[in-house]
Amino acid sequence: MRRMRLSAAMVAAAVVSGTLALASPASADPTPAGTFRQLVGVGSDTTQDVLNALAGDTVNAKSYAATAVTADGAGIASYDAIEPGTGSTTSTITTRSGGAAFLRPNGSGNGRLALSMSLTGDKFPNSAGVAVKGQIDFARSSSGPSASGSALTYIPFARDAVGVAVRGTALNTLTVAQLHDIYAGSLTEVNGQTVHPKIPQSGSGTRKFFLAAIGLTDGTISPSIPVVQENQGNAALTEDGALVPFSVGSWIAQNNGIAPDYSTTAATAGGHLASVVLPGDTGATSPVTTVNGKLTPVSGYYENSTFGRDVYNVVPSRAIDPSGLFFDKALYDVFVTSGTHEAALASDSAESVIASFGFMNESYNGSVNLAKHAKLGGLEESGVDLSTPAAPALKTTLGDASVKLSWTAPAATGLPLTDYRVTLTGSDGAVVAVKDLPATTTSYAFTGLAVGTYTATVTGANVNGSGTAASWTGAVKYASTTKATTATTAYGVTPKVAVTVTGTHGVVPSGKVTVKDGSTVVGTGTLNSSGKVTVNVSNHLKVATHTLSVSYAGATKLNASSASVSLKITKATPAISKTAPATISHTARAKVTVKVTATGTTPAGTVRIYQGTKIIASGTLSGGKVTITLPKLSKGSHTLHAYYAGSSTVNARSGANFVIKST
């Protein structure tokens, strides 16, 4: 269980030189040779020895097999920054059975670079190297991110500090200002002693952290300062006046005989960690003290914000996201403490090992909470388009207590699209559901929702992180179903459309129904308490078969719905009446008035007067009436009838026979 400080941390400031007889460096890559484990780590030599021990390997002739950290059978394979035994910086490692051999990553920066290239599939350490896709699971790092982004999560592993290993009593106490000037090249002598500064190799996390602490960068440090392998005092402290930044935890572990010895020869010759006047203090603080003959961290130095530092295990962010497609449960179980879930590295036995290597256990170690020392960083590759995807083009379809999202993939980036994250939040901002989908999927539906307002987002991602989100906000309701019926109707008669709307979840529909012929509204109505309404439609639809759209506008709890119905409009059936004289002189011309009527319309068109099959006169209706003057009729009785020729809206029809007697 995670505790604040398992190692003793005392504030006494004692300058200590190592006097212990230590064994030669021992092999600490996964043993025996050819051993492959599931969780592969590379990078910083500051934490390599303690990670080797936690992996259950032999460190400095001591086996840690009994306290190996595993999760569900998955073990750690921690590879040294330089080749154990030889110190070679050009040797290769093979981390997977049948995998490629690639250059051993030396230092935090190279470890993070190798992890980045393991994700992208690029060649490590450059285009002349070897593709390392899938060969690395985490990086040991003694410094924070060098690239912005969210692809990598820096999980605090322990608390360390950077001290200054020096040789000779003239450098027992140093200030930050002196260190700045020494490494800038402007101060060459302290207390009468010529100084001989050294600096760890490029890519070293200790180098990066130390330069930032004293206000310098790789661009402002004196170029004449020799480069040495990080945390190796024997090679750096070769003369009085020599000094080099050094992990305090590593110095303690080496001089206590816990870690492989790269420094006790220098310690025997007078090498030690200098006391430093910390910013804001008047006196100097030593990084270490002695308890029962062993070096122990001084908590005040470790907790100081200038020289105290967190050291990290860096993992792909997507691999520790339990809801994601790329979740690695073994990696999560070993490294992450979140809520009630405790990392395997937070066990009592693991913390005891961590403390024995000179580090301090903190309450936040293993946390992925950014408010508790965890950090986010981007992939650490140069010359590669690391941009994340743009927003997808998003569409939504509302259903019964559901919303279906569909989208078009964003434009391609340098790194291929790997997946989408679909998120639904309620009106209060609380996350309702999250779903990760492969890049080949472009739709997803959230179902079984309560009525309310929601926001849905869709974000594309590649291995460097999530891109820009596409967003929709709207109301989710229950489904409604609209049905409509009608009957064939003659022109001029008001058509009626019977509409029934039903709702799901026991909701009775209310509200307005609209009937359209094409884009023209031809009728509206309001549902009754049973969800029904009969809509009177315009009685002047042209004679034809019409496909009417019937739309329900929806209500507070119901979505809109619609239906279509076929309405056939036929021609109206007319009635014909006439007024004519019964008798007329054969020398006169009779006048016949014809009236044509039809329900709901005034007929127009031609009326003809027939005697038998012969047309004897005709006229055009006006206002449904016409008066037609007949030709002179010969003496005798004439049987006549009026015929209405019809129109586009009224059928043709013959009137009844009538007789005019000519005298």
Q: State the helix count.
A: 10
Low-confidence stretches: 1-26
Helix-strand category: mainly beta
Major pleated sheet: 10 strands, mixed
Radius of gyration, in Å, reads 46 Å
Mean pLDDT across every amino acid position: 93
Number of strands: 48
| Strand residue percentage | 35-45%
Instruction: Give the helix proportion (percent range).
Output: 10-25%
User: Looking at the structure, what is the overall shape?
Assistant: rod-shaped
Number of individual domains: 5
Distance between the termini: 131 Å
Question: How would you describe this structure in keywords?
Answer:
single chain; 663 residues; mainly beta; D-Maltodextrin-Binding Protein, domain 2; Immunoglobulin-like; 5 domains; ten-stranded mixed β-sheet; five-stranded mixed β-sheet; 10 helices; 48 strands; rod-shaped
